[in-house]
C-alpha cells in the first residue's frame, strides 16, 4: 500500500505538547517534506510537575517549546482547545459532549472546519487519562454517518507511545507501519530535544534511545530499517 502524502491535509490530535512528536514525529516530517499540510490540535497545556531540578515546568515554558517545534516541523497551524491548569491532566473531568464537540466542530482546527484527509490521534489504551478521553472523544467525533452531511476523513489512525503497553488490555502490535528514513527519525529526535522540559535520559519512555529503539523495532517488523507504528481505524481506498 502506498499513500501519496503530498496530497494530504493531516490533522493530529495531541492531548499535550510532545504527544504529537512522540506518536508521529517521523510521519509528520516525511509528509511535510512531500508537500502535505500538517496541523496540530493540542487539547490542553498547563503547569506540569516533572523531574527537572526545579520540579515543574510552567505553561509559558511549554508554549515557548510548542512555537519552536512548530517552526521545526513547519506546521501549517496549531491550536490549544482547553488551555490552563483547570483542564491540564483533568480532561477526564470534562463532559464527553464538550470534548467531542471541540474536536468535531467547535475549534479553529476542528474536523468540520479543517476537513482533513487524515486524522491521527492517541490510542485509547494509554495509561494517561487525558490520552484516553481524547481517543474516545475522537471516536465519537468521527462516528460513521452520511458523508454528504458530515466530513469523513479517508484515513483515521491511532498513534502509539512507548508506555502505551502498560495496561492489562494493551493493544496488539500496530497494523499500519510507515517507513521512515534516517532524516525523518532525526527530525523527530530534534523536536523532542526542543521539548526540553519533557525529554529525559534513558531509561525513560521519552528518551532518545527509547524513540530510536521503537523505530528500529517497527522497521524490523516490516523489513525496513525504521518505521512508526499506527492502528488503522478507517482506511477508505
CATH superfamily: LmbE-like
Evaluate the radius of gyration: 17 Å
Strand fraction equals 15-25%
Tally of individual helices: 7
Sheet with most strands: strand arrangement: 5-2-1-6-7-9-8
Q: Low-confidence stretches at least 5 residues in length (pLDDT < 50)?
A: none
Shape: globular
| Helix/sheet category | alpha/beta
CATH architecture: 3-Layer(aba) Sandwich
Give the overall pLDDT as a whole number.
94
Number of E-type strands? 9
| CATH top-level class | Alpha Beta
SSE ordering: EHEEEHEHHEHEEHHE
Distance between the termini: 10 Å
Give keywords.
237 residues; alpha/beta; Rossmann fold; 7-stranded mixed sheet; two-stranded antiparallel sheet; 7 helices; 35% helix; zinc; LmbE family N-acetylglucosaminyl deacetylase; hydrolase activity, acting on carbon-nitrogen (but not peptide) bonds, in linear amides; GlcNAc_PI_deacetylase-related; LmbE-like_dom_sf
Structure, explained:
35% of the residues lie in helices and 19% in strands. With 237 residues, it is of the alpha/beta class. It has one domain (7-175, 229-235): LmbE-like (Rossmann fold, 3-Layer(aba) Sandwich), CATH 3.40.50.10320. The longest helix is centred in the first third of the chain and has 16 residues, at 19-34. The model has no long low-confidence stretch (mean pLDDT 94). This is LmbE family N-acetylglucosaminyl deacetylase. One of its GO terms (biological process) is glycoside metabolic process.
Amino acid at each position: 500500500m502506498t499513500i501519496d502524502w503530498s496530497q494530504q491535509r493531516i490533522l493530529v490530535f495531541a492531548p499535550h505538547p510532545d504527544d504529537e512528536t512522540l506518536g508521529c514525529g517521523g510521519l509528520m516530517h516525511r509528509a511535510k517534506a512531500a508537500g502535505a499540510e500538517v496541523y496540530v490540535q493540542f487539547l490542553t497545556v498547563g503547569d506540569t510537575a516533572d523531574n527537572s531540578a526545579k520540579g515543574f515546568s510552567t505553561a509559558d515554558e511549554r508554549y515557548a517549546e510548542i512555537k519552536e517545534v512548530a517552526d521545526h516541523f513547519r506546521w501549517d497551524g496549531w491550536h490549544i482547545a482547553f488551555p490552563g491548569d483547570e483542564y491540564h491532566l483533568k480532561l477526564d473531568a470534562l463532559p464527553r459532549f464538550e470534548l467531542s464537540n471541540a474536536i468535531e466542530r467547535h475549534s479553529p482546527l476542528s474536523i468540520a472546519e479543517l476537513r482533513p484527509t487524515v486524522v491521527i490521534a492517541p490510542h485509547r489504551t494509554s495509561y494517561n487519562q487525558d490520552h484516553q478521553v481524547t481517543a474516545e472523544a475522537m471516536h465519537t467525533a468521527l462516528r460513521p454517518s452520511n458523508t454528504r452531511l458530515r466530513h469523513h476523513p479517508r484515513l483515521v489512525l491511532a498513534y502509539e507511545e512507548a508506555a502505551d503497553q502498560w495496561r492489562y488490555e494493551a493493544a496488539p502490535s500496530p497494523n499500519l507501519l510507515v517507513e521512515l528514513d534516517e532524516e525523518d527519525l532525526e527530525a523527530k529526535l530534534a523536536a523532542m530535544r526542543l521539548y526540553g522540559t519533557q525529554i529525559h535520559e534513558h531509561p525513560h519512555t521519552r528518551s532518545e534511545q527509547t524513540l530510536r529503539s521503537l523505530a528500529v523495532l517497527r522497521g524490523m517488523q516490516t523489513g525496513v530499517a525504521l518505521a512508526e507504528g499506527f492502528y488503522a481505524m478507517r482506511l477508505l481506498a
